[in-house]
TrEMBL record, chains A, B:
<keyword id="KW-0862">Zinc</keyword>
<dbReference type="Pfam" id="PF21175">
    <property type="entry name" value="RecR_C"/>
</dbReference>
<keyword id="KW-0233">DNA recombination</keyword>
<dbReference type="InterPro" id="IPR006171">
    <property type="entry name" value="TOPRIM_dom"/>
</dbReference>
<dbReference type="InterPro" id="IPR015967">
    <property type="entry name" value="Rcmb_RecR_Znf"/>
</dbReference>
<keyword id="KW-0863">Zinc-finger</keyword>
<dbReference type="Pfam" id="PF13662">
    <property type="entry name" value="Toprim_4"/>
</dbReference>
<feature type="domain" description="Toprim">
    <location>
        <begin position="79"/>
        <end position="174"/>
    </location>
</feature>
<protein>
    <recommendedName>
        <fullName>Recombination protein RecR</fullName>
    </recommendedName>
</protein>
<feature type="zinc finger region" description="C4-type">
    <location>
        <begin position="56"/>
        <end position="71"/>
    </location>
</feature>
<dbReference type="Pfam" id="PF21176">
    <property type="entry name" value="RecR_HhH"/>
</dbReference>
<comment type="function">
    <text>May play a role in DNA repair. It seems to be involved in an RecBC-independent recombinational process of DNA repair. It may act with RecF and RecO.</text>
</comment>
<dbReference type="Pfam" id="PF02132">
    <property type="entry name" value="RecR_ZnF"/>
</dbReference>
<dbReference type="InterPro" id="IPR000093">
    <property type="entry name" value="DNA_Rcmb_RecR"/>
</dbReference>
<comment type="similarity">
    <text>Belongs to the RecR family.</text>
</comment>
<keyword id="KW-0227">DNA damage</keyword>
<keyword id="KW-0479">Metal-binding</keyword>
Length: 198, 198
């Protein structure tokens, strides 16, 4: 029906989460019909982000600036540090605007099954940030999965002896639940009721 | 939270049909995490299509080639011509693979309310295609709206006297229904039961 280039575009879009072949086709049609008002601005926005994408050297967030917008924001409370597994978790938490501090992205979780060891995650960098001082509280906001909780306990061991309060998100997260799939209400509750690491 | 460039990209994506702010954010995160396997190919596909997008000089379809893939396809039956309001209708019909002929896109429908007159649509070009000969049947596949049906009747008048059979999609389309929102089953039934223009 359409040319191979357009079919290729539909297929690329259909691979995005939340889009299937049908909605991808509708999206492409929409873009083609609104070349000036939709296609051009979307393409420009993608190009800009694609060119400038960097991993923040401080926290591991992905952004178009290094340090990232959060690390560079003087209004954020540098004494409170929230450790998350993935960038998507950081975004999910930060979207709720409930956490006023800064973040640290591990880049995964410890997993015997997948062979992910401590040195594969950004753990030494986390310890170094804490060792550098100025941090009062470290929130271990791992997923409520076995691997997430294993990672939290490992981090608690590694941070033992530093003058920081270790907390974790309240239980009440659905078992097996992944942070970035939760609604803001659940996240808010879990964050409000965060408790000292046991 | 994220830089203004990333927020701008989320907003552009959120305007696509089928995506909202939430899924747009997830899509952007997905792209940022899969730079090589998702972001780069999507950007390349968008660029290619953006650069090559043309309106077919014969039928009014939007494609990356002129004549479009359908007009250029010698296996399609040139004696059967299906007239649609919009490119999206052409795609919806053609996706069903039920119509073996060629198309003509009007670029809208007559509307007193919106001030759309015959000269605003690709009607002279349609008459010229029919006048040039070689066409046996013209399917007037307008939407089942008041304006769509008004347009169909106007086209029937304009094509009077030419040796072509005028048909329209079977009633049975939901009243007020727009072609490109219908499932393939409904489209198939309407196309199979198409009948002479009354
Ligand atoms: Zn950062
Ligand atoms: Zn064409």
């Amino acid at each position: 029906m359409a040319s191979t280039e357009i079919e290729a575009l539909v297929q690329q879009l259909a691979r995005l989460p939340g889009l299937g072949p049908r909605s991808a086709r509708r999206a492409v049609l929409h873009l083609m019909k609104k070349r000036e008002s939709s296609f051009a601005p979307l393409l420009a926005a993608l190009q800009t982000v694609s060119e400038r994408l960097v991993t923040c050297g401080i926290c591991g967030n992905i952004d178009t600036q290094d340090p990232c917008a959060i690390c560079a924001d003087p209004r954020r409370d540098a004494r409170s540090l929230c450790v998350v597994e993935e960038v998507s978790d950081l975004w999910a938490l930060d979207k709720s605007r409930l956490f006023p501090g800064k973040y640290h992205v591990l880049g995964g979780r410890l997993s015997a099954l997948e062979g992910v060891r401590p040195q594969d995650l950004s753990i030494d960098a986390l310890v170094a940030r804490v060792a550098a001082g100025g941090i009062d509280e470290v929130v271990l906001a791992m997923n409520a999965t076995l691997e997430g909780q294993t990672t939290a306990h490992y981090l608690a061991e590694r941070l033992e002896g530093y003058p920081v309060r270790l907390t974790q998100l309240a239980h009440g997260l659905p078992v097996g639940g992944e942070l970035d799939y939760l609604d803001e209400g659940t996240l808010a509750q879990a964050l409000r009721a965060r408790r000292p690491m046991g």
